[in-house]
């Protein structure tokens, strides 16, 4: 099979190459998926660049990158129902703690990591679900229903934030989203109840005003370090902050007592490390939202297989309006 590989850390154009590898036959409890699309996420480009905290050397001699993807099950191992053959699926954790991810013609992995895609969901959309989709669902609904509550989505124009706005609305919440510049118009398309420019000097006051002066029940946070003070000011007693990023301030100053005296729960949300129950709930909720046609899943660009390095570069540059995919085979 043809695969994108790297054997050392470095710039995408310096280390990514097309390689011929033997497909891995499925073992007990595993499936082999013939991939049509592979999703490129910030964690993928950081892993390739050697920019993950605490990682100083390659964990495997040869790595096929990317954890997200979509395709069809073409082979099964013992213990896997034959009825799964031919099933159109989306992949989660394809390259998490594994050498071979989804930037290849085939991937072999545990059957539970290949989720049947709802009818009508295209393969490009399915290839975006593993990280952005599950992160959005878990950060909004990970500790229970939000119907009748107010959810603040910090960075609502980003890939996860845009999905989180839609998930929260689908789940019955009042939704306030923050963004800036062109992102303000973009996030409005996701349907929040209020949109606020997060560069405002009076951001906390504006958020509370948008919620009729009442504090916020749940915050989905993309930049915890930058927004910790604001979040502490607007969160309700016994509220929850689910932070899935802090790239701009990786060693944040924590307003401990303002958070403590509101009995706030602060969650560092890592989609790769969800428990079995959390994962099952998130997968079920995400597929249900798709079946209900409650999600418009944005895709910024689809690159040909030979241009995988350019896909990595686009993700590294940021400020994109949706997911970035690599086409392995098939049409859009």
Explain this structure to me?
The chain has helices at 12-15, 42-49, 123-126, 129-141, 159-170, 182-188, 203-210, 224-234, 256-260, 276-291, 308-317, and strands at 2-5, 17-20, 30-40, 68-76, 88-91, 106-110, 114-116, 150-153, 174-179, 194-197, 216-221, 235-243, 265-268, 299-304, 323-327. It is α/β, with parallel strands linked by helices and 332 residues long. Strands 3, 4, 5, 6, 7, 14 and 15 form a 7-stranded mixed beta sheet that branches. α2 (42-49) packs across α11 and α4 packs across α5.
What attributes does this structure have?
332 residues; alpha/beta; six-stranded parallel beta sheet; 11 helices; 15 strands
In the predicted model, the low-confidence regions spanning at least 5 consecutive residues are none
Q: How does the helix and strand content classify structurally?
A: alpha/beta
The dominant shape is globular
User: What is the rounded Rg?
Assistant: 20 Å
In short:
By secondary structure, this protein is of the alpha/beta class. 30% of the residues lie in helices and 25% in strands.
């Amino acid at each position: 099979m043809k695969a994108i590989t790297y054997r050392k850390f470095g710039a995408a154009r310096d280390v990514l190459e097309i390689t011929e590898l033997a497909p891995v036959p499925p073992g007990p409890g595993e499936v082999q998926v013939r991939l049509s699309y592979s999703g490129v996420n910030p964690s993928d480009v950081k892993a390739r660049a050697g920019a993950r905290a605490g990682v100083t050397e390659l964990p495997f001699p040869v790595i096929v990158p990317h954890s997200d993807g979509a395709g069809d099950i073409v082979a099964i191992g013992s213990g896997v129902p034959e009825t799964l053959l031919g099933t159109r699926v989306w992949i989660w954790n394809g390259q998490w703690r594994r050498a071979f991810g989804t930037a290849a013609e085939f991937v072999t992995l545990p059957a539970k990591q290949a989720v049947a895609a709802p009818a009508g969901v295209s393969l490009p959309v399915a290839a975006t679900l593993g990280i952005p989709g599950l992160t959005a669902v878990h950060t909004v609904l990970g500790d229970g229903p939000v119907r009748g509550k107010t959810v603040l989505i910090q960075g609502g124009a980003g890939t996860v934030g845009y999905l989180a706005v839609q998930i929260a609305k689908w789940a019955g919440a009042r939704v306030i989203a923050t963004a800036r510049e062109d992102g303000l118009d973009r996030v409005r398309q996701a349907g929040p109840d209020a949109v606020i420019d997060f560069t405002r000097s009076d951001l906390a006051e504006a958020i509370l005003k948008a919620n009729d002066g009442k504090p916020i029940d749940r915050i989905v946070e993309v930049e915890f370090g930058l927004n910790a003070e604001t979040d502490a000011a607007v969160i309700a007693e016994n509220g929850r902050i689910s932070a899935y990023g802090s790239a701009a301030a990786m060693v944040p100053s924590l307003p401990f007592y303002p958070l403590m005296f509101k009995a706030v729960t602060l969650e560092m949300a890592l989609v790769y490390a969800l428990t079995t129950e959390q994962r099952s709930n998130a997968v079920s909720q995400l597929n249900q939202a798709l079946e209900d046609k409650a999600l418009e899943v944005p895709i910024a660009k689809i690159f040909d297989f030979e241009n995988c390095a350019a896909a990595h570069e686009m993700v590294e540059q940021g400020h994109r309006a949706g997911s970035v995919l690599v086409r392995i085979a098939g049409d859009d």
